[in-house]
């Protein structure tokens, strides 16, 4: 990789420089059209690895006549300043199956109060460790870095090409609205709404984020039932009613509220609560190719061994805290939020939107921004509806569990005359979750000549979350273990985007087997 020096503070030239790590995969066809900047999401995702190891894969989608530029945003990965946290938040929200029980509300308020104290302590440690440098993270500064580096690579006033996944779609919206006259080819894929990101507290954002989560969760069981016991560890017979599988798992998760599962053989021994169980499932919904391993982890835990599940949930690492530095510098200040306010909104969302609301709320580090100790030199809060010199392409899945189609439709409405919308009929987070020749063709056409899909275009996929095993076995768990061991060992673009990937699940399963 290479390193580019950029201004640390674009409002104060005397503040010094930040060093941005870049990975570059050169165009392999002539004439070269320019460079495409990629961001895999997060915040906290590293782009250097993405470009250097997967550059050829990305060229399949944008064309071989583009350079692929991946970068680690300031505070992330190999870039300097480096983010140093020194501690990791304790996480886990347990929710009673009886939502009308007044004690449940009291318990949740106490949990939220504890979470607030943890956030406050965490961010005080961040301030003590890093001082004023943490104020220089943030999406506004990062898109100015993109513009600065693009000028070095392509010349003054050159157009900026960009492809962002997940949080990278927020970055893309900042980019095109701060530099509307510099837009070249820009794709945002797996869309988060930047207006909501910047201007709403996380507990207000989550009902929209989780708009499709429960539908995707139900789809997991439909696909499991369709695949049968030789491919899905949770199925007990062929042609099983998916509601029967769903109810078995939900009853077991509910039982963890009263009796958490002891997990002595995990890498970090502990207990599996119903909140952690939901975290495991919610994270796994993002990567449909990992659904066989999700089913296997659940099946093992329901038989008493929660090692795979707990190991996967414990994969939470520094990336989450790097995310805090970005999201909290981006968010409009909200003042101190009362635990009662958050819990009452959450109980309403739990019943009307998603059963995953509370378990996700504590897992998302954005929720503590009321205690963020610094103010960034620049914070863009909108508007988000600029007229762009070239239209962008918005890509959304029908069953994306964390960045739902409604987000893509909302951003498309903001940029009505400056965007096109492509819908992929599939589960998973971003169009890379499952392969679609149709989606790839539309992406290549857009990067080749700016062609947008006809309004209402929907692309189908060629992959299934539960592919049939090559050798069926009598035991559903043994059969699925074989699938988990052999599943798609080749690194894919989707593996750089999802929080709980098939690869991470294999590692978690390997660790649990090694410990037993």
From TrEMBL:
<dbReference type="InterPro" id="IPR051601">
    <property type="entry name" value="Serine_prot/Carboxylest_S33"/>
</dbReference>
<feature type="domain" description="Peptidase S33 tripeptidyl aminopeptidase-like C-terminal">
    <location>
        <begin position="361"/>
        <end position="459"/>
    </location>
</feature>
<dbReference type="InterPro" id="IPR013595">
    <property type="entry name" value="Pept_S33_TAP-like_C"/>
</dbReference>
<dbReference type="GO" id="GO:0016787">
    <property type="term" value="F:hydrolase activity"/>
</dbReference>
<keyword id="KW-0378">Hydrolase</keyword>
<dbReference type="InterPro" id="IPR000073">
    <property type="entry name" value="AB_hydrolase_1"/>
</dbReference>
<dbReference type="Pfam" id="PF08386">
    <property type="entry name" value="Abhydrolase_4"/>
</dbReference>
<feature type="domain" description="AB hydrolase-1">
    <location>
        <begin position="35"/>
        <end position="202"/>
    </location>
</feature>
<dbReference type="InterPro" id="IPR029058">
    <property type="entry name" value="AB_hydrolase_fold"/>
</dbReference>
<protein>
    <recommendedName>
        <fullName>TAP-like protein-domain-containing protein</fullName>
    </recommendedName>
</protein>
<dbReference type="Pfam" id="PF00561">
    <property type="entry name" value="Abhydrolase_1"/>
</dbReference>
<comment type="similarity">
    <text>Belongs to the peptidase S33 family.</text>
</comment>
